[in-house]
Amino acid sequence: MFQHVARLRNRYFDKLVAEANLTAGQVRVINLLLRKQGMSQVELARILGVGTVAVSAQLDRMEKNGWVIRKPDDHDRRSNRVWLTEAGLATKDFLADGFAQLNDTAFDGLSDADVDHLIAMLHRIRSNLETACAKHDEGT
């Protein structure tokens, strides 16, 4: 059920952001960079849960469309840092509107209390899974 809802959410969001020539995956990168400009490609890959080759291909497309620019790391010439361009920064309000429309659609018919309860349950599920992963990684 979670995966189905996530796929539908991404599919609908792709439709909302298509007019700006963006995809949900590109929006994830933009949101990360809005929070912390100058992340390395390796950092982005780790947070996104994908390989560095996939991030590099995504950034190639984003750079071609003028959303980001990559610059060599001042301390490690083997590494690139990623920055939003003015065009990338200018997507902030458009994306906020898209997220609001997405949430309004997804939560249609649910009360504020229902939404709060759902979010609390999802936080609990995430916490349970993070704890299980950490224990598994420790070998316990």
In whole angstroms, the N-to-C terminal distance is: 29 Å
CATH superfamily of the largest domain: Winged helix-like DNA-binding domain superfamily/Winged helix DNA-binding domain
In sequence order, what are the helices and strands, one letter per element?
HHEHHEEHHH
Helix content: 55-70%
Largest sheet, described in full?
Answer: 3 strands, antiparallel
**General shape:** globular
Radius of gyration: 17 Å
Into how many domains do the coordinates divide?
Answer: 2
List keywords for this structure.
140 residues; mainly alpha; Arc Repressor Mutant, subunit A; three-stranded antiparallel sheet; globular
Question: What do you see in this structure?
Answer:
This protein has 140 residues and is mainly alpha-helical. It has 2 domains: 2-106, Orthogonal Bundle (Arc Repressor Mutant, subunit A); 111-140. It contains 7 helices and 3 strands. A 3-stranded antiparallel β-sheet has the order 1-3-2. A hairpin with a 7-residue loop joins strand 2 (68-72) and strand 3 (80-84). It starts with a helix and ends with a helix. 14% of the residues are buried. The mean pLDDT is 93.
